[in-house]
Amino acid sequence: MIEQAIFAFVASCMLYSGLQVVHGRNLVHAVLWLGVTLSLTALLFLLLRAPFLAGIQILLYAGGVVTLMLFGIMLTHRHGGVHVENQQGRKLRGALAAGALFALMSGAICTTGALPHGGTAVVSAAEIGQAFLTDHLLAFEVLSLLLLAAMVGAIALARRSDYGEVVSGPAGRGVR
Amino acid sequence: MIPLHAYLLLAAALFTLGVYGLLTRRNAVGILISVELMANAVNINLVAFSWAHGGTVGQVFALFAMAVTVAEVVVGLALVILLYRSRKDVLVDQARDLRH
Amino acid sequence: MIGILSTLVAAPFLAAVVLLLVPDRARLLVRLISLTGAGVALALSVRVAADYDLDAGGFQMPELYPLVPAMGIDLRLAVDGWGVSLLLLTGVIIFAGVLASWTVKERSKDFFILLLVLVAGVCGVFVCQDLFVFFLFYEIAVLPMYLLIGIWGSSQGVTEAGPFRYVWKLFDIGGREYAAMKLTLMLLVGSAVLLVGILAMYFAAGGTTFDMEVLGATAYPRDMQLWVFPLLWLGFGSLAGVFPFHTWSPDGHASAPTAVSMLHAGVLMKLGAFGVMRVGMMMVPEGAVYWAPLVGGVAVVNIVYGALSAMSQRDLKYIIAYSSVSHMGIVMLGAATLTVNGWNGAVYQMFAHGIMTGLFFALVGIIYERAHTRFIPSMGGFAKVMPGVAVFFTLAGLSSLGMPGTAGFVAELMVFLGAWESASPWWTIPAILGAFLTAIYVLRAVRGIFWGPGPDPAFEDLADARGTEWGALVVLGAALVLFGCWPGLIVDFIDRVTPGYLGVLTQGVVP
Amino acid sequence: MSAPTPFHWGLIALLFPLVAAALIGLVAPLRRAGMPAALVSIAAALTSLLASAVLLAGQIDDPSRAVVEVVGWLPVAGSTMAEVGLRLDGISLSMLLIVTVVATCVQVFSLGYMADEPPSAFGRYYGFHSLFIFSMNLLVLAPNLLQAFAGWELVGLTSYLLIGFYYRKPSAAKAAVKAFWVTKFGDMGLLLALVFLFAQTGAFSWDVTLSGGWAVVITALVFFAVVGKSAQFPLHVWLPNAMEGPTPVSALLHAATMVAAGVFLVVRLDPLFVQAPETQMAMAWIGAFTALFAAVIAVVQKDIKRVLAYSTCSQLGYMICALGAGSVMAAYFHLTTHAFFKALLFLGAGSVIHAVHSNNLADMGGLWRKMRLTAVTFIIGALALAGVPGLAGFFSKDLVLEAVHERGLWLPWLALLAAAFLTAFYMGRVVFLAFFGTPSKAAEHAHESGPTMALPLVVLAVGSVGAGYFGSSFAELYGASYSFHMGLSGIVATSLGLAGLGLAWLVYGRRSLPESSFAFLAPIGKLAESALLDRMYTFMFRRVLLVLAGLIGWLDRYVVDGLINVIGWAAIEGGRRLRRVQTGNVQDYTYAVVVGTILFVIWGLWP
Amino acid sequence: MSVEIAPLYLDVGLGAGALMVLVVDLFLPTVAKRGLGYLTALILAGLLAASFFIDTEGVAVFGAYQGSAWTTFFKRMFLAAGVLAALGSIDHVAQHHRHRQGEYYLLLLCSLLGMTLLPGVRDLVLLFVCFELMGIPLYVLASYGKNDIEGTKAPTGPEAGLKLYIVGTASTAITLFGLSLIFGMTGTTAIAGIGSASASPLLILGLLMVLAGMSFKIGAVPFHFWVPDTYQGAHTPFVAFLSVAPKIAAFGALAVIFLDGLATQQDRWLPIVVAVSLVTLVVGNLSALVQDNVKRLLAFSGVGHIGYMLMAFATADAYGLGMLLFYCAGYLVTNIGTFLVVEAVAASGGDDSISSYNGLARRSPYLALAMLLFLLSLAGIPFVIGFWAKLSVFMAAWKAGLYLLVVVGAVLAVLALFYYLRVARAMYMEPPGNLPIPRGSVSLQLAIGICLAAVVLAGLWPGPVVDAALDAARSFFA
User: What span, in angstroms and rounded, lies between the C-alpha atoms of A56 and D200?
Assistant: First the structure.
């Protein structure tokens, strides 16, 4: 009963904050609301007996991603240009499409009768680590390369070079 | 107990909120945020299913999804910065040199 | 060991490859190599005819090279009486065509390369025994046309008119590039339709081989035959100029350079008719019998409609182009009769019309090159300055109107005989009327160009044919008369196989 | 080396002219030299004449001989469908002799007549002539209808080429194509007949037996072609125009031989025609009508060649009528005699024209004094044509009339009689206008032509006088019997002929009767001159056929082809519309992704 | 189950190669960095050669991966594409991105590694990660483009990359959501296990979302909008790679999920694939008709080609899959060759408009001939490989009863010829004017030459390739 109440509370908070994320005018606020949503998700994970994930969620998402986003906004908006009004037509179209998608999804969810029902067993970090090193070893390795690629790629993109200025000759070596 | 349906509906709702943002945000960062919301909904799904089925697979999947999403965000932000440098704004509906 | 047929197909192609390596500036060398390629093709086709055992008949000199075994596609070559006669035609036309193109000035190397590739395709079709490779050669033969017309062709003015005037803004109608594009696209739409029919047959026959013998020996369900045949007919028919899919032909032939018109009207259109008979009628006989009334009816429309259209033209090349439409109608009529005479006549008409129209286009090329006009009302009295051209033009005209002593007569006679024996004898009457209409427009053209007072002062210095042009004219003209007086030379080959094919077809019995 | 057989002689007769034509055609220097080409051609014609004389002599020894030598020409289904070769019998050999004799005469005559032409044109002229002789011989000696058709078409071709000999003259060019088109129009019938004949019998042989209906159809079709070639009403319109050709050509092709080919064909096909009385009846009527009709028109012509041209129509009408009456002998006999005197008349006219440089009767007059030989021979020909007793025309015309009379064809008989009267009248008119009376300006400087022109005139005049006496020999060759006797027809016709000559003398010789007293005939003259039929054909050609062709041409360009263009246009227009969807705004692209997903889900989840 | 990695030797080599490039990059002076391209090409070529000697069949790493003839065929395609792209890129990258060359080749190799793994994965998690390993570097690489388009000063690369990125991440999210549902309804992420579940609405929803998300990667209509913009904006040698390799890999992934894992739900997704194929064919070809920019034209034509590939995919049988592989192989060499010619023309003073091809036949006959043959191959004209490719797809589709698709496809193939011939027309029929003579670098010429040789040789004798493709497809279904 308590769980259900918590869930109801968390869920409604999430929906509200989610709405703020996508609907708010101020982009900085939106990012902050995203942080709220992500943190609430961590709560939800706890309800789902996944403490390890909840921790990761807080660290990686609510901490990392939100910070990154804020950086992104700050770097690309000089003075207060964070208020960007969405066009009315697009809002309507977007709402229609999103509504339709939600209707379809919820329809599918509701018409799927027999869903498995979870227990109370908590998955430990050790179990997850075990899985990483056996069944998902290859995926793990690939993921590491992926993260490397993403880092290198992001650096390659964000570094000032090529565009605008011409770095001549061997002297360019110093840029790295 | 909370039925699985509830989690799924919540995830679906968050996902479609993200879709709404994706479709309406003009600011590139806004779009990134919206995609984050969608990815987050997936994670709820995965963890909820993992809880339902027991075992680690779902959570492992969710972890992979998180990592990948973060990687995407990193690249995305770099792209946004690049865009900003080349165009002096990050409104996606202004970046329309390539069309028709 | 490479057989004679593959050598025959490869010879022009090899010549084209050799040409690729020759510098542009070595014009004479380029021409000599092309002439060698064409000459080898001609010589080998004569050799094939000589080697063909008339007593044995059927398919001879088989060769087999696996190509894509997984799809059942092999390079299967063999030649029958029809193939022999059409190979000879191809050899003669390409030889004459190279001679007639001797004076191509601009980018002559590219021109001859494309021409030879085209010829390789044509030869391939006539000797191919694998339906798929048949189709493949068919496409090869169609494609170089685009560049040949687009680069070396000529444009003509067309007045904006008609209910679809608004389309003019979009296309450069009358331009050579428009003509080239239209020709290519229409023919390839035809081949797309064709492909559908071919696939249907292939899979209905088990989907293991494209061997035409096997596909031909399969008894397809009647329902299927009834819808496959129209596909094959229209697919091949678009190349044979079947109404109403003939409209590429006037523009295409009018725009094309001399040798290309010669080859295209002379040989390529035959490819279409040959396909209708060899693939359409022989492989789906029930469909052929069922649709024959329509095929013949449309052929009759072609004959009369083409002749009337030709009559209304004032551009010389258009007249000849429409006459091709009309004459191909005779071929298709012969095919639709499903009688021995009709089929012999159809194949022989391919041969005769090929040579005749080749001669026509060679002459038109000469006239156009000298006078820089094809507009008949501006001509007149040319016989005085180019008597040789006048003689050969008249000869070609006589053949086209079915004058005995020329190949055209024999072919038309056989077709008419066949038409009367066929299931729809009434075809004979409009067909004969078409021959009469031909007499009208051909002789009007002769009168308009060569007869009468004149020529205009502007045309007083026009030269008669010269050098290699004579070669082309004499080769074709002599062939026209020789095979008109002694048709047995060719008809023996054709007739050797026709009755057998028809026997299979009309009995609906499959061996 | 064994002695030449008839077959060899036949080959010589057939092929020598072809060789001559080929030589002249292919060896350009020979052609351009002119005179050598003429000599080659004449030599070939003479050889041919010699061969045919030898053959005919042999035939007279053994009238029932029929040599048939053929080789296969066209195979079908492994066997021979059509053959070519020679058939040497009475019918073909007598015709062969006529052709070669007249041809040789005309060729010799042309030496003088065409002497003013440039050498290359002269050479070309003889080339065509040789080709013509070959074609005619091909037709005459044909062992079957197919070869005959080939010859038939080839003589049409040479006729076209020779009429158009002065190709730079627009009227000649027009006349040439007109002749070709009209005869070709008729030839469709022959072609169709060939097709039907083959369908019925599996061969093209001369003597066949057919069930009634088919015999009528086939003979009617053949007759249609004959109408065209032999210039019968209503397809006679080309013949007068054909006079645009050189006069010797008119003598050879358009009087003596080619136009008679129609008659020859019917004679050849007689076994078939007797099975079709309906066709014969039609022939009798049409022949008789043409005979009268053309004679009437001939009366009012001012051009000497046109008079002769209409006269030819008229006389061919006689022959056709005789054939219709079932008398091969009469028709063929008339053909023979007519060949001589009509060729003579044309050559004589040619001689006159050569002298006065005009075709117009008004430019002549009083030539009797200047051109004695020409005048004498021309008058012999005219009298023969008029049917004056003792001359060739008398016998043959009498036979025709007799035959028609015997058959009980009263109206045709009367028409022929009237035509006989008119024939005498218009020939008298020509003779009096051209050779007597006061010379016109042009005629004053006229003088007799050289020996090359005189000799043929004499030869033909002899023929015109003597041919009539060989009736029984001819009859033997055809397997008929003939003996001359003067019957009702003969008496009436002869008196009418003499009356006609007398009337002509009164009007044009003595001028005792003014021309104006024939004013009541003026409407007929007007009618003849207005050339109603010609105008109708022209109308059909220009206003119907060409307009139809123009319509079809337009339709093809702008509607049929237009539709094809519209398809292309539609594709490109579609592309243009689609292009606008590509807005460049990535939000629209994501929108498409979401909508696509929704559509997927709807479709996948719906059932 | 063990850490067996023998079937992954090539992929391991690829990963090692990537790291090698990373390390070498650190020690190379900028002037010498062009060597990285050759190094990359050499690595890939070596691996390609090795693929003919190393047996890479069998299960690996706890059953997450299975090597077979199927994966080998894919690997060879990707390695070949990598070699060609690397060779083609060397000059462009050295000239325009001289300070980012190391990253370029590293990302290329990483992306390739994702691709080579994809067709053999036996687990949804691995599949997803590989998919992303393939995708993320592409976002970066697409942003490298520097070419300006008329009237704007801004480089087009960022816009191109952004469009690819936004549509891509959205699609990824959709895919991921779908995968989560599939996992949820089956309780497993093993490919072998997901087929056994009954068809609940959620499972269907999941698979449809995966299908939609993956349709983005292959560029099927209506997920294709990024294609022309990105192709136009990104730099050409990379587009050569982008236009083929990821799509082929995505087909591999689609095959793994749908033909293997979810084959039991065929009646749900197959009709959609058929419909998408049809729409893609029509839209792609019609849109290409009116393009004046060669890269956009090729982009839309590429969309059309996806329609043909989907046609083969929609047969859902071994024969069709084999023909799909054959089509992919043919499309790979042809399309890379085409784009490399575009690069060669643009690199020497031209741009991407059709008019800059005017008179190419006279400026550079061999380049024009190569372009002509590539275009003919794209159009499906005999004696170049594209013809056999198209044919094989038609055969497969006909065999599977997709008659409508065959008819539409055949007719549209002719329509396609119209726009290919527009380029041919410019090359052969227009006067060259003052346009420069293209002088492609040696490496570019080499790459074009390899493509040309492949297109022509395989066009003349396609048998071995077809056999290999059919073997691969059979091993997939074994």
Answer: 101
* Token digits of residue C244: 């109403």
- ipTM of the prediction: 0.90
The verdict on E192 touching B (C-beta cutoff 8 Å) is: no
Other CB atoms within 10 A of residue D43 CB: 14
Residue D440 in tokens:
């016109």
How is residue E246 written in tokens?
């990821």
Q: List, for chain E, all residue ranges whose pLDDT scores fall below the cut of 50.
A: 147-151
Mutation target among D178, D192, D552, D554 for the C interface, most CBs of C within 10 A: D552
Residue D30 CB coordination number (10 Å)? 18
Residue D233's φ and ψ, nearest 5 degrees, are -60, 135
Q: How far apart are CA D362 and CA D377, in angstroms?
A: 21
D contact residues 564-593, partner A, Cβ 8 Å cutoff: 587, 591
CB D201 within 8 A of CB D255: no
- Residues with Cβ within 8 Å of C510's Cβ and at least 6 positions away in sequence, in order, are C217, C218, C219, C504
Neighbouring chains of C at 3+ CB pairs within 8 Å?
A: D, E
CA angle at residue C499 from C495 to C504, to 5 degrees?
Answer: 145
| Chains B and C touching, counted as 3 or more CB pairs less than 8 Å apart | no
Q: Please indicate whether, in this complex, the C-beta atoms of A76 and B29 are within 8 angstroms of each other.
A: yes
Rounded Cα distance between C137 and D333, Å, is 64
- How many other CB atoms are found less than 10 A from the CB of residue C414? 32
- Which residue type sits at C7? T
CA atoms within 13 A on the CB side of D459: 20
Question: How many whole angstroms separate alpha carbon A76 and alpha carbon A55?
Answer: 30
| CB of D392 closer than 8 Å to CB of D467 | yes
DSSP 8-class letter at A173: G
Residues of E in contact with C154 (CB under 8 A): none
Report the greatest alpha carbon distance in chain E.
Answer: 67
Token reading at A97: 């499409």
Burial class for B36, CB neighbours closer than 10 Å (0-12, 13-18, 19+): buried
How many CA atoms are closer than 13 Å to the CA of C185, on its beta-carbon side?
23
- Name beta bridge partners: D74: D82
Kindly report whether the peptide bond that precedes residue D277 is cis, defined as omega within 30 degrees of 0: no
Number of neighbours of residue D546 by Cβ within 10 angstroms? 17
pLDDT for the residue A173: 35
Please provide the distance, in angstroms rounded to a whole number, between the alpha carbons at the two ends of chain B.
54
Mind listing the pLDDT tens digit for each residue in C332-391?
999 999 888 899 999 999 999 999 999 999 998 888 888 888 888 888 888 888 888 999
pLDDT tens-digit readout, A111-155: 887 777 767 778 888 888 888 888 899 999 999 999 999 999 998
Query: CA C256 → CA C12, C90, C267, E39, distances in Å?
Result: 21, 18, 14, 51
| Alpha-helix residue ranges (DSSP H) falling in E119-225 | 124-142, 157-186, 191-194, 201-218
Rounded distance between C-alpha atoms, residue E202 and residue E204, angstroms: 5
CA distance B33 to B27: 10
Contacts of D151 in chain C (CB under 8 A): 404
| Burial (CB count <10 Å: 0-12, 13-18, 19+), residue E28 | middle
Parallel, antiparallel or unpaired: strands E65-67 and E58-60: antiparallel
Calpha distance C12→E376 (Å, rounded)? 21
Could you give the CA distance from residue D171 to residue E116 in angstroms, rounded to a whole number? 85
List beta partners, residue C474: none
How many angstroms separate the CA atoms of C383 and C446, rounded? 9
Give how far C244 is from chain D: nearest CA, Å: 7
Secondary element (H or E) of residue B26: none
Determine what percent of chain E falls in helix, strand and coil, rounding each to the nearest 5: 80, 0, 20
